[in-house]
């Protein structure tokens, strides 16, 4: 054995040893501690269609996000005018992205315009009669708000899923306002849906007074009876203006109630939120502040005094688990707008087991037929092709395990297709070698010429298929991505197994047969 063949054989053996090491965790879960300490212990992850789980498509209410942003901008402008000692009244939001107000004194009109022009470049003036002003947020800014609402919702849901502890989730945008979520292996799908699908849209509003009842919004809420410790539903009249939303929450922790009280959630606000909350409480002492979660009033305490330090409490008729889940969704980030479940499917684990069984059967039956055909038709060349096929499949599965990729049913289809492509490459090589042997070439010369003539065709077909797989992976959805991933990895291992490995085995066979070979 010459040194070139020896080093190539060592490369193949090393690749096989590494592949087996990477695949051991996928074949058994009873790994010793020393293995887990120094060697890879992650098994191949199974997708939603193989191990069950939930599939949801959420639709983000981007119109509500624009309305919230308009309310907050209106509150910010109100504060700026107050600082400049410009009295304004009768603030109204008109539609989604417009609002109006009236100045008490017309002499302050120019000063008010200057503040809007300098500090609010995204506002467009709609009307101005010297006393009443009407502005709207510019359309480019509104489009940006809608886009940002979906992107922020996507990131928020991803944070929630990370805290929920799901392995290899699929979370991606679909359409203009949709978010696709796939959670494989979820054991409690109902709790997952509550955590992910819950809007957790937190709003702070003042309860309406007698003078503002004509503009009040009716909301439901639960009230806890301190004597019987039971809850009953009541109706609140709240002002339409949102003073603060959940995007100012820096941290949220659930706390057990004391002296028989229900558990509650303690909020820590960020710097901006602390300033806004300080202003709200200082300007509205004696009034009731409604804490609204997903359109339902959780509590409406009386503001006894100015509250500084950026801390607030959400109390209500929570159980400890409900308070814990609420803290998770608020801590992971409140959604910028409500979402609704537009599509929902639950895949049971039994269906996943059936899919695995069907996939393995197709893999075993297809692989066995290919192996037997190659041995029957090409004899020694077929045996060598089968050895290269084993190298190919082991490396493919090892790469999936090493990079912790997710194997799906379409992914199994990609592996089966890879086997067919690998055999196709060996068929080209063996046919070229046969042609050279018929021409009277020696075994070594036929081997050299056969690989040289077959290699361009093998590379052309595999490169074009690889590029098609990259396009599928870039633009496809979850199942298509799974197919494209195994296809692209399989093409790389096919070239190694069918061209590099099988050639080494051919050269070893020629040397052992003393330069005589028949295919």
Topology:
Blueprint: H1 3-27, H2 33-38, E1 45-46, H3 48-51, E2 53-60, H4 62-83, E3 88-94, E4 98-103, H5 109-119, E5 123-128, E6 132-137, H6 139-164, E7 170-174, E8 178-184, H7 189-197, E9 202-206, E10 217-224, E11 231-238, E12 244-245, E13 249-255, E14 264-269, H8 271-283, E15 289-293, E16 296-299, E17 311-314, H9 320-332, E18 339-347, H10 349-378, H11 380-402, E19 406-407, H12 409-438, H13 443-475, H14 478-512
Parallel strand pairs: 1-19, 10-16
Antiparallel strand pairs: 2-8, 2-18, 3-4, 4-6, 5-6, 7-8, 9-12, 9-15, 10-11, 13-14, 14-17, 15-16
Salient structural properties:
single chain; 519 residues; alpha+beta; Multidrug efflux transporter AcrB transmembrane fold; Gyrase A, domain 2; six-stranded mixed beta sheet; four-stranded antiparallel beta sheet; 14 helices; elongated
């Amino acid at each position: 054995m010459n040194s070139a063949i020896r080093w190539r054989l060592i490369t193949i053996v090393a690749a096989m040893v590494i592949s087996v090491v990477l695949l051991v965790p996928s074949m058994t879960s009873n790994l010793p501690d020393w293995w887990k300490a120094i060697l890879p212990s992650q098994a191949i992850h199974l997708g939603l269609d193989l191990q069950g789980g939930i599939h949801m498509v959420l639709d983000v209410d981007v119109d509500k996000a624009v309305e919230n942003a308009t309310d907050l901008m209106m509150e910010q402008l109100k504060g700026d005018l107050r600082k400049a000692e410009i009295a304004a009244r009768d603030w109204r939001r008109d539609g989604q992205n417009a609002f109006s107000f009236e100045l008490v004194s017309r002499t302050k009109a120019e000063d008010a315009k200057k503040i809007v022009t300098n500090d609010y470049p995204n506002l467009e003036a709609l009307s101005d009669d010297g006393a009443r002003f009407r502005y709207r947020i510019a359309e480019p800014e509104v489009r940006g708000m809608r886009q940002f609402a979906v992107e922020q919702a996507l990131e928020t849901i991803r944070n929630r899923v990370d805290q929920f502890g799901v392995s290899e989730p699929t979370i991606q945008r679909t359409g203009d306002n949709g978010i696709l979520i796939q959670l494989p292996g979820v054991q409690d799908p109902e709790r997952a849906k509550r955590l992910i699908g819950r809007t957790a849209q937190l709003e702070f509003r003042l309860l309406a007074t007698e003078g503002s009842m004509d503009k009040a919004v009716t909301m439901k809420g639960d009230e806890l009876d301190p004597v019987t410790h039971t809850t009953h539903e009541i109706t609140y009249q709240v002002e339409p203006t949102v003073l603060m939303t959940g995007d100012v929450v820096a941290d949220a922790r659930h706390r057990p109630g004391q002296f028989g009280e229900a558990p509650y959630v303690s909020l820590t606000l960020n710097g901006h939120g602390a300033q806004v909350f300080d202003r709200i409480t200082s300007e509205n002492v004696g009034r009731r502040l409604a804490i609204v979660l997903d359109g339902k009033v959780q509590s409406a305490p009386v503001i006894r005094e100015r509250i500084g330090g950026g801390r607030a409490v959400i109390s209500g008729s929570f159980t400890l688990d409900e308070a814990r889940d609420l803290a998770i969704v608020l801590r992971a980030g409140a959604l910028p707008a409500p979402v609704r479940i537009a599509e929902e499917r639950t895949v049971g684990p039994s269906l996943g087991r059936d899919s695995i069984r069907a996939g393995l059967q197709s893999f075993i039956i297809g692989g066995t037929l290919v192996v037997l055909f190659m041995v029957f038709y090409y004899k020694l060349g077929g045996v060598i092709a089968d050895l290269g096929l084993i190298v190919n499949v082991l490396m493919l599965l090892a790469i999936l395990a090493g990079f912790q990729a997710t194997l799906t049913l379409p992914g199994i289809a990609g592996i089966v297709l890879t086997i067919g492509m690998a055999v196709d490459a060996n068929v080209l090589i063996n046919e070229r070698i046969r042609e050279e042997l018929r021409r009277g070439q020696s075994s070594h010369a036929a081997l050299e010429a056969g690989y040289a003539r077959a290699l361009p065709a093998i590379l052309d077909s595999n490169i074009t298929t690889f590029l098609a797989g990259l396009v599928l992976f870039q633009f496809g959805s979850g199942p298509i991505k799974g197919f494209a991933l195994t296809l692209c990895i399989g093409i790389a291992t096919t070239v190694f197994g069918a061209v590099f490995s099988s050639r080494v085995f051919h050269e070893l066979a020629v040397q052992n047969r003393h330069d005589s070979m028949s295919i």
